């Protein structure tokens, strides 16, 4: 048990150390390339911070034969990312965070509702005779990959539209170049990925030692650990004054997590991951869709009132859905 916990926390520590470097290099790339901070957060930071989910998922299904860890990690990360919005709002004391970001994030959040909800439906319908496969690969997995590409293409075209807001200006930093920023980004991303590859083995050891269900371990512990990069990068982005980069990273990571599920299914050689994983994960998926919907309401309505000057009703709603879904997966997971 002690060894399992030490391995688990060692992976978290490595990820937490590499996270700030990702943020700084992403911020530098935005300054030096002319790309918007929202786009850098959606594509570059979201991809890099989601590499633990990718490596954890593949190693879970291909090496550890733990489809519940893989599915729980991906869907649990979606919930964890949306809970981080509450942290952003609490840290954004002068003005609510949804009042500081571009409403174009509604597009990404909307695709999140579609993709996460679709996975939740698949976890249920494959048990009702709708498990269509070619070999061991579910026919739904290529559809997930296609939907991800459509979402990224839509976000890209939206980003190209003329903006009414003035272009952001940055002060030049001595000795800073685009090539150096990209090198730092790649190095930090590799460190994050390496730590994420070991997480499922520590998670399985914890589940066995503590007597926990693997679906619960995947949804809570492993998902929290693989979401450490998003947490660190998001907080750092907000402190650098880029709320758009922070929100873009979280929402982009959710889309990437669903892409990871499709890749996990291809890597899982024993059948469809949607059939092998516990149907209790559908609760997590539907909770993620509800939370993304709540965020869309926040981005449209832009409420500014807070309870005790710390948390808004949007934040309370997000927390309530997260806690209820976590308790449900603990009770009914496999």
Q: Could you characterize what this model shows?
A:
This protein is mainly alpha-helical. It has a single domain (about 1-160, about 175-330), classed as NCX, central ion-binding region (A middle domain of Talin 1, Up-down Bundle). About 75% of the residues lie in helices and about 0% in strands. It has a two-stranded antiparallel sheet with strand order 1-2. Strand 1 (about 135) and strand 2 (about 135-140) form a beta hairpin. The chain is globular, with a radius of gyration of 19 Å. The model is unreliable at about 165-170 (pLDDT under 50).
List keywords for this structure.
two-stranded antiparallel sheet; A middle domain of Talin 1; mainly alpha
The number of distinct structural domains comes to 1
Instruction: Give Rg in angstroms.
Output: 19 Å
Low-confidence segments, given as residue ranges, are 164-170
Which whole number gives the mean pLDDT? 84
Task: Kindly report the spatial arrangement of strands forming the biggest sheet.
Answer: 1-2
Number of continuous helical runs: 13
Beta-strand content bin: under 5%
The CATH architecture category equals Up-down Bundle
- Beginning-to-end CA distance, first to last residue: 21 Å
Number of strands: 2
For the sheet with most strands, the description reads: 2 strands, antiparallel
Elements, N to C (H/E): HHHHHEEHHHHHHHH
The secondary-structure class comes to: mainly alpha
Residues in helix, %: over 70%
What is this structure's SSE topology?
Elements: H1 2-33, H2 37-49, H3 51-62, H4 67-91, H5 105-125, E1 133-134, E2 137-138, H6 140-159, H7 178-210, H8 214-226, H9 228-239, H10 243-267, H11 273-276, H12 281-301, H13 313-332
Antiparallel strand pairs: 1-2
Helix pairs in contact: 1-2, 1-7, 1-9, 2-10, 3-4, 3-7, 3-10, 4-8, 4-9, 4-10, 4-12, 4-13, 5-6, 5-10, 5-12, 6-10, 7-8, 9-10, 12-13
């Amino acid at each position: 048990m002690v060894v399992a916990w030490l391995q688990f926390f060692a992976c978290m520590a490595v990820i937490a150390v590499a996270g700030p470097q990702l943020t700084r290099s992403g911020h530098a790339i935005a300054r030096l390339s002319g790309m918007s901070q929202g786009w850098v957060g959606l594509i570059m930071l979201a991809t890099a911070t989601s590499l633990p989910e990718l490596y954890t998922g593949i190693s879970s299904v291909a090496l550890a034969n733990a489809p519940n860890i893989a599915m729980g990690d991906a869907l649990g990360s979606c919930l964890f990312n949306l809970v981080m919005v509450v942290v952003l709002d609490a840290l954004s004391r002068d003005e609510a965070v949804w009042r500081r970001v571009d409403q174009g994030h509604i597009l990404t959040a909307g695709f999140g509702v579609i993709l996460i909800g679709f996975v939740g439906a698949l976890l249920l319908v494959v048990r009702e005779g709708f498990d269509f496969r070619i070999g061991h690969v579910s026919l739904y997995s290529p559809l997930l990959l296609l939907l991800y590409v459509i979402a990224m293409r839509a976000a890209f075209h939206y980003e190209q539209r003329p903006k009414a807001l003035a272009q952001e200006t940055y002060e030049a930093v001595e000795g800073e170049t685009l090539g150096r920023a990209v090198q730092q980004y790649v190095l930090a991303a590799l460190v994050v990925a390496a730590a994420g590859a070991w997480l499922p083995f520590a998670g399985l050891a914890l589940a066995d030692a503590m007597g926990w269900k693997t679906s619960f371990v995947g949804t809570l512990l492993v998902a929290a650990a693989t979401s450490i990069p998003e947490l660190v990068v998001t907080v750092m982005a907000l402190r650098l004054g880029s709320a758009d980069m922070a929100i873009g990273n979280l929402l982009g990571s959710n889309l990437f997590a669903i892409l990871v599920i499709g890749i996990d299914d291809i890597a899982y050689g024993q059948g469809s991951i949607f059939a092998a994983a516990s149907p209790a994960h559908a609760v997590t998926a539907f909770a993620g869709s509800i939370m993304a919907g709540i965020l869309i309401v926040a981005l449209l309505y832009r409420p500014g009132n807070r309870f005790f000057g710390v948390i808004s009703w949007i934040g309370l709603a997000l927390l309530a859905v997260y806690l209820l879904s976590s308790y449900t997966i603990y009770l009914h997971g496999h």
